[in-house]
Amino acid sequence: MKVWPGEPYPLGATWDGSGVNFALFSENATAVELCLFDSGDEERETRIAMKDQTDMVWHLYLPEARPGQLYGYRVYGPYAPQEGHRFNPAKLLIDPYAKAISGMPKWHDALFGYTIGHPEADLSMDERDSAPYAPKCVVVDPAFSWAGDMPPKIPWDRTIIYELHTKGFTKLHPAIPKKLRGTYTALASPAVIEYLLSLGITAVELMPVHHFIHDRHLLEKGLRNFWGYNSIGFFAPHGEYSSTGDRGQQLEEFKIMVKTLHREGIEVILDVVYNHTGEGNHLGPTLSFRGIDNTAYYRLVEGDPHHYMDYTGTGNTLDMTHPRVLQLIMDSLRYWVLEMHVDGFRFDLAATLARELHEVDRLGAFFDIIHQDPLLSQVKLIAEPWDLGEGGYQVGNFPVLWTEWNGEYRDTLRSFWKGDDAQLGNVAYRLTGSSDLYARTGRRPYASINFITCHDGFTLQDLVSYNEKHNEANNEGNRDGTDNNLSWNCGVEGPTNDAKVLALRARQQRNFLASLLFSQGVPMLHSGDEFGHTKNGNNNTYCQDNELSWLDWDLNRARSKLLEFTRFVIQLRRKHPVLRRRNFFRGRLMRGDKHKDLRWLRPDGKEMTEDDWNNPHARCLAMILAGNEEAIDEVDERGNAISDDSLLLMLNAYHEPVPFTLPEHFGYEGQWELVMDTRSSTGKRKHQSIAIHGTYDLVSRSLALFRFKHAEEEEEE
Fold first, then answer.
1. Is 348 one of the annotated active-site residues of the chain?
2. Domains, in order of start, for the chain
3. Which of 246, 319, 348, 673 is catalytic?
4. pTM here?
């Protein structure tokens, strides 16, 4: 076979129409071999030495190689775990820049760099060949017709995110052919597109689709890594989600999905896991990074390089202080934007990416590079602003350009609707965009990604149905998963036929959904919550690739009503700009007159006082949102602020009904028109207008929304 020197860039396997350039970074290797496999996964007898090295990149060019070629690497160097080196040429390694990966690990002791069961544990070196059991990389042809594809570029203030799992969302969908369910093709099917459009969301946030592995210990227990937070390939779409094959076909299928969603105005955001890999701790397998250059890719314990720093609870942490690791992540991000046309990223445990040494540095190199990047600085950037290390909780501390999963929002809204004491001040901040977290650094309300539930924790149905987690199916003695879910089971734990309990649970779900959609910031809805999906109290279904996690599309009457309600409140958010402001409320007099853009009221219609805010037992409040910000600085001939619609939002987390007095509105003549009340199963109520100073009885644990109807409107009618 002809072999040419090739080039050190780009890294990975690059098809140029005539042949393939292979390039692999390893700082401490003494030799590297390229291994080629035929269609039957049989390794060719001749391994090709990569003799050329430029700036620690080993490279060669094969003029006879073609797309579809399977390959892997063997890397030579010292096997000295106590010094941090774990080279073992008996192990076939995945290219970190592989654009496609075929197969999953066929778990065998040979996949580990050390001899399992040896008295010296991982200090021993296992010399068995891992190639028969290891996944293979695939050379791909990147050609694809993107003609006509236009990124939707939905402004943040109009964004509504829908978090979903590629497989779980469609696996049981009756309108999708069985052979396509659980795949990228299924997500682009007419049935799914129609559903997403009817719901009213603007972006899907896909749980991890980077190629990941199923942990050996899970498979041995009959479980699987369902969530996918165990990446082994940062450029490769997960092969198991492809209906057309994993020899490169997964690329085209993924691209078709993105192009189809874009055509319907729906953005695609990827949940990405760059903080760690699927190789685990020092006793994990040698699949890629560990065998290519352990000391370069991973954060090792200072003074004890035998072990890994673990800020993620998964056994290892990528070393963001190494320039080549930083390059890997940046190259991956650019690839997914340029070649795969995704619209943004949600970064799992993003605080880990900011760690320069041990402390979290909010202006770390990673953020600096993204901010100056002309491509990545323009896409949606979402941080999960915490990790498991000391000082890892960083809500509110990420730089401008970033949005954050607002854990404070989740916890506060749960506490409020549960009926906990002393929540009014906190809930006021959360409803208005969390200015206490974001305003001081010049960020906007949409820096806050608001959510009540997500993949990690109870579903919304289970949140109001269970006080305790029920994770027995995970085979960990119910010890896994968080204990603090701030749940409230409405009086009865678990399934029940009690009509009153069921009604209260349903209303609490509506309260959460309405609060979420009526809050300033960006709402994120977890798929299935809109129609009451349950996981039977399991709040950590990371390993449940079965009916417990897959969405059940058989909607009964109650679930259909909840879906109708969700669509209704999403429509209201989209209809009323005041519910999705680009700037924070000022809460003060405008232009020196008596008008405020935001007023907080007690149930008696009077403005809240300091004593009211400090009353730990108060569980009711109302707020007037005076029109949208585009018009808020304009005045009419009377000198009064103009607004599209001024809204009145009432919340009652008390266990008994509370009469609310309808307040005056800037001295205008008119009435308050009821728009929505969560006492109704669909939120919709019969037409009702209430005069100023009239009263409205808000039932226990409910929420109502009114629109101010000017007297002029009544005359026109």
1. yes
2. 12-138 (2.60.40.10), 409-440+493-524+548-717 (2.60.40.1180)
3. 348
4. 0.95
